[in-house]
Amino acid sequence: MRILFITQRCGNRSGWETYSTELVHALRAKGNRVDVVSTDSTADFRVSLPDPLRYKLLALVSMPLAFCLWLRLRRKLRQYDLIHCAIEPYAPFTRVLSVIMGRPYILTVHGSYGVKTLDGIFGVLQRSAYTHAARIVCVSTYSQDRLTEHISLKRSIVIPNGVTVPTDVAPSTRQPHLVFTVGAVKPRKGQHLVVEALAKVKERIPDVQYVVAGDLTSHAEYVATLRKRVAELDLGEAVVLAGRIDAQRLRDLYAKGSLFVMTPASSATDFEGFGLVYLEANACGVPVVGMAGSGAIDAIAAGRSGLIAREGDVADLADKITSILLDENLRDRLAVGGLKWAYEHVWSKVIDRYIAVYAEAIGWQIDQRTD
Length: 371
Known about the structure:
Layout: E1 2-6, H1 15-29, E2 33-38, E3 45-46, H2 55-77, E4 82-85, H3 91-101, E5 105-109, H4 112-116, H5 120-132, E6 135-138, H6 141-148, E7 156-158, E8 178-182, H7 191-204, E9 209-213, H8 220-232, E10 239-243, H9 247-256, E11 259-261, H10 276-283, E12 288-291, H11 296-299, E13 306-309, H12 314-326, H13 328-343, H14 347-370
Parallel strand pairs: 1-2, 1-4, 2-3, 4-5, 5-6, 6-7, 8-9, 8-11, 9-10, 11-12, 12-13
């Protein structure tokens, strides 16, 4: 198949980027032709799309940018079988391009921005894009449920995120009481809940340590509140806000850590749609703890790859963390189960589901034309 793939950029600086990169690589590995449309200068076709977080601006530029791309590349664009948009705010741009090209399109809905974009003028465009998509791929049943609270979807399907099992993370001597989180430090990621739970964990495990690896600059007020709470709870060096770390330090963290914890705190329009980091930790042989009321219920095989605490329940979270850190047998069982769970989600397996959806989408558009 020949696929035109729309994303902001490929890389590993965000969930959007990682998803785009891994999906494109997996499609190409199966012999498909995939050309990327993005804001990145290394893309096959570069388009000056705004930052997807500024989606209101996209309401003004989606149509002219789509026409400009078509006028510049119309001969090349005729060769594609379909379009896949990997970022929710770019859906209206994709819809316009689809009409011009006369090709079906697929949309991926990850989490918050599948819902946030449904209000106001942009919401009209977004709803139209959802309605006319050949398929909407939701990365979890949780995201699908949250989306259908706002809009009726007849052609949505759930395909969980894929993961790449690393070959360069060889577990060293794991530190038995090292807990860690990887991801931007912001309210939705729920690091504050782990800090509260850690105060209770420390009563039974005095040498417990919680390392937070992730951006500390984008939500400075939240980080300041977090630091203040760490001081109030007298956690001292038990909590390390490491900020962004390089690839080698990240590999070391996955090799030395005994437990990965991320506790998403959901709101009406802000939620964790899946949580690829759970699978990434499992792929390194690390058990995980997540929290209900988020995509963690899809990303974690409860009792097999990790444990899920009740939503917003700090005491239950503390119990889950403590039980894994103190019970070596449980920790080992979850580590082994988690690695098997990760292998069930490798891209070489997940990609077949995408290819089936693509084939169905092409057939769907042909059917629409003959009705």
